[in-house]
Amino acid sequence: MKKFLLLYLLSVMGGLKGMAQMRPFNQGVQNQTVQPYRNPLRDSLAAATEALAYHPDSIDLRLKKSSWNIQLEQWEYAKDDLDKVLYIDPTNIAGLFYRAFVNDKMMRYNFARLDYQNLLTLVPGNFEAQLGLALLNQKDKHYTEAYDQINMLIEANPDSAVAFAARAGMEKERNMLETAAYDYQRAYELDTMNIDYLTNLLDLNLLLRRKKESRECLEALMYKGVRPSALKEFGIRLKKIKK
Question: Quick one: which of 59, 53, 23 has its CA closest to 39?
Answer without folding.
Answer: 23
